[in-house]
Backbone:
């Protein structure tokens, strides 16, 4: 029997470091991205109790780029979190080296 999925876009399996940023940039939590698409992601985090419904997610890609996306919680269960990206695109992509040069 074929598996039925409700996702609008196929997600790619991955293991990427990420950071939840919230509280106007004053708070953050480490996370791991387990799968990813242009529209959302599956994340793992040790303690999500303080995480608001909407937040920024900074994904540290393997090629050295950081991608910042605005996200909304869709579901949460046992340390796993499904999110939907609510910004229009990945225009916020910047490499770590460019960020270091700017500081």
Residues:
């Amino acid at each position: 029997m074929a598996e039925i999925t409700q996702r609008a876009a196929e997600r790619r399996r991955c293991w990427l470091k990420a950071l939840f940023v919230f509280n106007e940039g004053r708070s953050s939590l480490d996370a791991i991205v387990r799968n990813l698409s242009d529209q959302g992601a599956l994340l793992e985090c040790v303690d999500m109790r303080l995480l608001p419904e909407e937040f920024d997610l900074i994904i540290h890609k393997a090629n050295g780029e950081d991608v910042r996306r605005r996200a909304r919680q869709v579901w949460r269960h046992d340390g796993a979190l499904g999110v939907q990206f609510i910004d229009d695109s990945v225009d916020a992509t910047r490499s770590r080296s460019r960020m270091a040069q700017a500081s």
Observations:
- The chain is about 5% helix and 50% strand.
- Residues 96-102 form the longest helix (7 residues).
- Residues 48 and 79 are 7 Å apart (CA to CA).
